[in-house]
Fold this sequence. Notes:
With 398 residues, the protein is an alpha/beta fold. It has helices at 2-14, 23-26, 44-56, 78-87, 104-114, 151-159, 168-173, 175-185, 188-198, 208-230, 238-251, 258-265, 269-281, 309-315, 321-334; strands at 33-38, 63-67, 92-96, 119-125, 142-146, 254-255, 285-288, 303-306, 339-341, 348-350, 354-359, 374-378, 388-390. It has two domains: 2-146, Rossmann fold; 152-396, no CATH class. The model has no long low-confidence stretch (mean pLDDT 94).
Amino acid sequence: METLMKKHQILISQVSTDIVRNMLNRINWDKQLVAIKGSRGVGKTTLIRQYIKQRYGVTAGEALYCMMDSIYFTNHSLLDLAERFHAMGGKHLFLDEVHKYPTWSKEIKEIYDLHPDLKITFSGSSLIQILNADADLSRRVLSYTMEGLSFREFLHFYKKIELPAYSLDEILEHSDEICQKVNECCRPQKYFEEYLQVGYYPFYDGNAEEYYSRIENVVSFIIDQEMTQFCGIEMAYTRKLKALIAFLAENTPYEVNIAKLATYLGINKNTVLSYLAYLERAELIHLLYSDNKSVTKMQKPDKIYLQNPNILFALGQNSNKGTIRECFAVNQLSANHSVEYGKTTGDFKIDGKYTFEVGGERKTFDQIANIPNSYILADEMEFPIGKKIPLWLIGFLY
């Protein structure tokens, strides 16, 4: 345990708290059991270490941070560690990448039951199933999902421009005032173009080529390691999954033809549908349906987008502006809202209430003229014109 305490001190001392994401303040860290899920690379580890440094300082004592792929756990159990930590007066145990410890759910449940005064916060892949794990933790755990950087957070992280987040209702009702505040601080359209290419993952260091290479590595790791572990995909079939996402990168937004995909990949239609569901759970794609309430398990989606525009730039070769715009809109809106495919009534329907059409500054209302609560999200604009709102503005939702 002394080894873990030394590692704790080294790792917590290394993290900077100069810029902290708003999510740190939204999490109820005082709950006995907290889960932070999210795709690889979005910043879960940094967030946890920043909280520890702010709340408990650098030295291990009341808090202990553990990376669950540590060699320590090859001959020590998590349960034994928790027993020793609790006996020494420990108050809060942080378990990073908990999915790398095979019996994590059973042992966390036992620790939870044995030590109600010991808080446990754990992070894990977006693919981990808290509900259907070996021990059902769903009734005990407070779960959060972490997204990549929003456009607002990108401005904070990389341009040192700090602005508040707004709800969707606030953006739609007060777009003039919000745009005025943003434009007083910067020229948002200029930075927006950069964000679409390199702004979603918090590991851009100024080298776009290396950034895209890291994104490719993230995608490969999720497919090769996490999907084989959590989805039962055999290693021999991971090439099919990579071929599928490569196809989508060249053809998104994809008007879904499952038969065509099955033929292209050399697998049956049900397997294609399963693979698409896994890729969405892994937060590599978005599946859109025209009616979210009636979606069945093996239903064909109406449209497919890659999860965020940066993946599109990293993997795709033929991305046009329309594709990039729609990919951004789906990514930002789906973080906290229900997004449906609009079919003949606009591009997207949000929360069953708002209809959005996405396009350039010359986009007209012809397709949504008689639809209530309809708006255009227009690129290359810095201020709204009536119900035509700058596309970048929905990057301020979180």
